[in-house]
Amino acid sequence: MVSSSHEAMRRQLMSVDLSFFRSETSQRLRDEGLAKGRIEDILLILDTRGVEVTEAARERITSSTDLDELRGWLTRALTVRSTDDLFTETDPETEAGPEA
pLDDT-based confidence at 20, cuts 50/70/90? Predict the structure, then answer.
């Protein structure tokens, strides 16, 4: 049997206003956190792979807030040889090389 104090606590918890978590502000904060994480990951991957990151490239990476752009850079950071390659979008068909 649930005590009345436990039931009262449960009711109070269930009545908490959660609208903030669906608000534009909350979404913006989540997006900022995602962007910051992607930026850190891009720089870590480039550093680990020994790819030189110029101040201009670092500024461009760290100032981006576009999650799609950052995702593309994150994916390319795994294979590029320079930050110039990081910022250059390539056609997937030309990346595949000559057909066999």
Answer: low
Whole-structure pTM over 0.90, yes or no?
no
Higher pLDDT, 47 or 3: 47
Q: Distance (Å, rounded) from C-alpha 33 to C-alpha 79?
A: 25
For residues 40-61, average pLDDT = 97
HEC-encoded secondary structure of the chain: CCCHHHHHHHHHHHCCCCHHHHCHHHHHHHHHHHHHHHHHHHHHHHHHHCCCCCHHHHHHHHHCCCHHHHHHHHHHHCCCCCHHHHHCCCCHHHHCCCCC
For tokens 């461009």, the residue is: 60
